[in-house]
Amino acid sequence: MNLTWAILGIAFLILLHEAGHFYVARAVGMSPRRFYLGFPPAIVRVRRKGIEYGIGAIPLGGYVKIPGMHRPASSDLDVQFGPVLREQPRLVGPVARVKRALDAFDLDGARAALPELEEAVEEAQLSASARRLATRALTELGDSLAPDAYWRQRTWKRISVIFAGPGANLLVALLLPMIAFMIGAPGKTIRVVKRVDADHPAARIGLRPGDEIIGINGVKTPDYTSLSRSIKGSGGRPITVTVVRKGMPLVLGPARPVKENGRYILGFEPAWHTDQLTPWAALGKSAGDNWRAGKATITFLPRLFTGEGRKNVSGVVGITDVSRQAIGLNFALFLEILGLISLSLALLNLLPLLPLDGGHILFSIIEGIRGRAVGREIYERVSALGIALFLVLMFIGLSNDLSRIGG
Description:
Blueprint: H1 2-27, E1 34-48, E2 51-65, H2 74-87, H3 92-103, H4 107-123, H5 128-145, H6 155-183, E3 186-196, H7 201-204, E4 212-216, E5 219-220, H8 224-232, E6 239-245, E7 248-255, E8 258-260, E9 263-265, E10 268-274, H9 279-300, H10 307-311, H11 316-329, H12 331-349, H13 357-370, H14 376-405
Helix pairs in contact: 1-6, 1-11, 1-12, 2-3, 2-5, 3-4, 4-5, 6-9, 6-12, 6-13, 9-12, 11-12
């Protein structure tokens, strides 16, 4: 059940991100064509007022299809209609008329020639695969020539639409920890035992909820940090645990810590100090935590190119596992973790790399300064580099996740 909540929490963050793009696009006059959680093929889809809503089978994110992300060019038709023209040469004439208009930067002429091309495709004898290609190409061309096409909008509108996704995640990153602090998020961890896990060393030596651990191997542990460090640093060697129970000191063990998720544990959950803050105090604490976490994330990025930095990268599996563990401990802690994940999603998407949101914002600014659109081929080359870097990062994260979970 905890795993289900963790997955739903991350899906909720992705949904809000895409909703930010979707609603701001509609607000500034662009009409999105699709709104999906996950990527196709679609498991469920429905069409309402010209917009297709759906859930994709590939759970790696989500997307909003905004019409006409790139200015159309005649070279686009060469790529999109190439296989179709080889199968049905009679379409060469209608395609050529649209290409000539695009080469002359006559968008009205291209739009006027589009119905003829659509009719010719409809009447042509095409295989199923060629017809799918032609239908997709016509849809893309129609979207890019439409008045609400993204590339035709003013710079501020384009930046607003793209920033709205990370902006929604930034807002959630502020609100979720604020709610957690208001309902009583765990604060400083203390040495008192809250729960003992069955079939673990702690249970076998008789550790009980309410025991206060004051020493490991006869060495005092003044706080939970030193206590945890002593257990982790045992290397799996037997240790004794000194506790205070009903006002009396008691030595338990020895016990041999077991290794789980890459670290040695005895198998107990500590208690926390919990403070319920007022709304203003909770907002201030959330803002401060987000600021510190944001700075830590930004300064961490250059360390991705070092071996130590790569070890600290987590992928979808690791993030979901941490969320699952958090909700098993405390719901407010889960909200805090979810807020940090939302912040990370926002900062990752704002990196100035295509196809991330930050890359689209950068190119919108460049096009605004130049006064004309950048060609699709430039977008595709830069996107290929960004996708390659992103896939490498995902591979590193997944490798680390499997290593941690496998111990």
